[in-house]
Amino acid sequence: MTLQAADWLARIHALELPARVRIMNVCGGHERSITMAGLRQALPASIELIPGPGCPVCICPEEDIFEAIQLALHEDVILVAYGDMLRVPVNVPRAQARSLEAARAQGADIRPIASPTEAARIAREHPDTAVIFFAAGFETTTAPTAAMLVEGAPDNLFILLSGRLTWPAVALLLDSDTPGFDALVAPGHVATIMGPEQWEFVVQRHAIPAAVAGFTPVSLLAAFYSTLRQLLDDRRFLDNCYPDVVRAGGNRLAQQQLQQAMDIQQANWRGVGMIPASGYKLSERYRAHDARVRFPSYADDARKRAGEMPPGCDCAKVVMGKIRPNECRLFGSACQPRHPIGPCMVSDEGACRIWWSGGLRETIAPRRVAGAAG
Predict the structure, then answer these.
(1) Is 239 helix (H, G, I), strand (E, B) or coil?
(2) Residue 160: pLDDT above 90?
(3) Half-sphere exposure of 229 (CA within 13 A, CB side)
């Protein structure tokens, strides 16, 4: 028998739960599905669903966005980027371009794209112009960028890479004294590429229940039920609640292409700071396509500092599950989707934008999620 969402909800409501259970969902797509389907309201009141570090736009370092803006404004280039990145603000005086969208309004040739193949196509259509692909994202979007390079990118295409790995941010939370959640729902698309095994450290090193989930209410509720049963039965394992897509070992070809085109290094997460082994960089083999090699003067080391969110913005705390979106000091007042102050209100994977779009607009006094990392 195939269980439907109502069946999983009935099973969850039948459990004898403790007074409070905190489940962190890592993926921005998960948060969107949870909010739009009203799952928080449908679950028992004792279950708290915490949005985690699953928005690549939200954690893209300010200095990388600033670098992209400067390249687009001051070099004879076409700059392409995923659409969400165009509206992310940086901290500069209002007279200067504060986003890629503002730089485009000042005359820079900046174009939104949906995939690396579009970047390659634009480069081939303009062979005498340098095309810079500002490639921000997690494993699921970095893997296609690696594939494009391995399979042969146009000579005039340069990558301004701001790729991140998802699991190190969760590891950072778990390695703290108070991680702030009792169970984890791992991202299905990342697990499709990298394999579900990447998340076994949650169970093996920290004895925290975990389940990989897809993006339907059925898959998410199945994952919630699995982690809750693990807690109640005092059994810990990594469950795959997205078996139609996620396979043991993941996508081997994508992994090989990532290993060939990318190296891994410590990397800055906006507002969070440096996280070990959490960033991608182009390997020496593809140095000729590295925008930072081709245009080195725009890599401003002076801007690489932690806590780089706009004044009053609590996006970093939202990203790391320390507060809810509506506990941010600017949520719904100064910061709204039409006029975002922080990056979490820009992207469709940003928790603040998701909560606002889903009608969760009542602001509450700031508080810490009990037990959250400092």
Answers:
(1) strand
(2) yes
(3) 14
DSSP result, 148-209: HHHHH--TTEEEEEEEB-SHHHHHHHHTSS--S-SEEEEEHHHHHHH-GGGGHHHHHHH---
Tokens linked to 141: 């979007």
pLDDT band of residue 194 (cuts 50, 70, 90) is very high
Q: Is the pLDDT of residue 66 over 50?
A: yes
* Structure letter (DSSP) for residue 368: P
CATH dotted code for 58-165+250-303: 3.40.50.11740
Q: What CA–CA distances, in Å, run from 263 to 34, 280, 283?
A: 34, 6, 5
Q: Give the ranges where the chain is alpha helix by DSSP (H).
A: 5-14, 28-36, 39-42, 56-59, 62-74, 100-105, 116-125, 139-152, 167-174, 188-194, 200-206, 217-233, 252-261, 291-294, 315-319, 351-357
pLDDT in tens, 263-295: 999 999 999 999 999 999 999 999 999 999 999
Q: Do domains 5-54+178-241 and 58-165+250-303 have the same CATH topology?
A: yes
Average pLDDT value for residue range 231-240: 97
The DSSP string of 287-303 is GGGBHHHHSGGG--GGG
CB 212 within 8 Å of CB 166: no
Phi-psi region of 308 (alpha: psi -120 to 50; beta: other; left: phi over 0): beta
Mode of pairing for the β-strands spanning 273-282 and 262-269? antiparallel
Q: d(Cα 97, Cα 105) in Å, to the nearest integer?
A: 9
Domain range summary for the chain, segments of one domain joined by +: 5-54+178-241, 58-165+250-303
Question: Shortest CA distance to 156 belongs to which of 291, 282, 357?
Answer: 291
Domain 5-54+178-241 of CATH type 3.40.50.11750:
yes
- Range 73-108 burial, b when 16+ CB lie within 10 A, else e: bebebbbbbbebbbbbbbeeeeeebbbbbbbbeeeb
Structure tokens at 33: 């599905």
- Indicate if the pLDDT at residue 227 is higher than 60: yes
CB 116 within 8 A of CB 124: no
